[in-house]
Amino acid sequence: MMYFAHEMSRAALMPLRMMTDAQSKLLRHPLSPLSRLPGARSIASAYGVFGDLTRRYPKPAFNLHTTVCDGEEVDISEVIVKRKPFAQLKHFQRSVSRPDDPKLLIVAPLSGHFASLLRGTVKEMLPDHDVYITDWRDACRVPLSAGDFGLDDYIDYVIDFIEELGPDTHVLAVCQPVVPVLAATAIMAEDNNPATPRSLALMSGPIDGRVDPTAPCELATKHNLAWFRRNLVHPVPAPYPGAMRKVYPGFLQLTGFVNMNFDRHVDAYRGLFKSMRNKEVEKIRRHREFYDEYLAVMDLPATYYLDTIQRVFQEFHLARGCFMHRGRKVNPAAIENTALMTIEGEKDDISSPGQTRAAHDLCVNIPDARRLHHLQKGVGHYGVFNGSQWRESIAPRLKTFIREA
After folding, report:
1. Residue ranges of the PHB de-polymerase C-terminal domain (predicted)?
2. Staple 383 to which of 52, 133, 274, 379, CB 3.0 to 4.6 Å?
């Protein structure tokens, strides 16, 4: 009933949002006599913050329309290469032909936010790479007739997408997908699949969550799987297309994200109030640019969510050497010809340093000359794949690694 109650509360707030929005406009408009009342600007700003906090945030667009190749601005078109029930393979197609640029598949996390969270990652790689990304669907919009989706299905999707791109593909997995992507690569390598990735970059993910456990890791081990199933899995209500599908709702994941840095978010909205009151347009734009992305969340299929909790965060199957895919043991030692790079942030409070680097201990047959680890000083989780440190320090190393591979 929690999902239903959440939707009812949103609907109940709608009239109040409409009323405060109208009053805010009256208090701000220069031709309105109400705008001259003492405190009018502060009241209007409070209404504006209320509107931002209570509105629905839709799936954000990538809005990557151009990039620069060899000093020339070229157009970008988003092309869907392959559609599947729970994801689509998206190609950022450039208007120029550059056959020597490496094919790069970015595997976006399926952990609450949309793939557009990696906008900065894609933008930085576009000038020198032929970029594709996994664009996961919001589970509440997938009809029950599409079937279930678990961690094994995730691995199947990754293999399918890599095979779609063919040989000489380079793969970058960001955060949550490092485990299924490493498993997919190991399966392909053991099968001598010709599309086995040329290189694999794993970024800030839980290959071994036992290393310096963070708050999310501790939460997973604090409760048994039945607790997660009982408290965090709920059926999707009507009228969503996925009505009655069991999911881990995005609003619960968002609550967890916010609570990890609650004071920071409170300060951010205090700052928004002041910026609105003082008509600081640029500060308002920057705030909304971040939170329009951060507050847009998606539901996760329940089977996938519970599989991940149990096999990755509670029992550490991959790190312990007992990870199974459809009854078959996954063997990272089978990876020999794929170059491996791991990337971590020194201040990462979601996947602490060491958790991703553990991949090197599993992939024992990759030659030392084809493996690399990078720890970025002074950055947290999101700073690893977005922001100035990503652009100036991490991305150049990743580009060099891919070229050398």
Report:
1. 205-404
2. 379
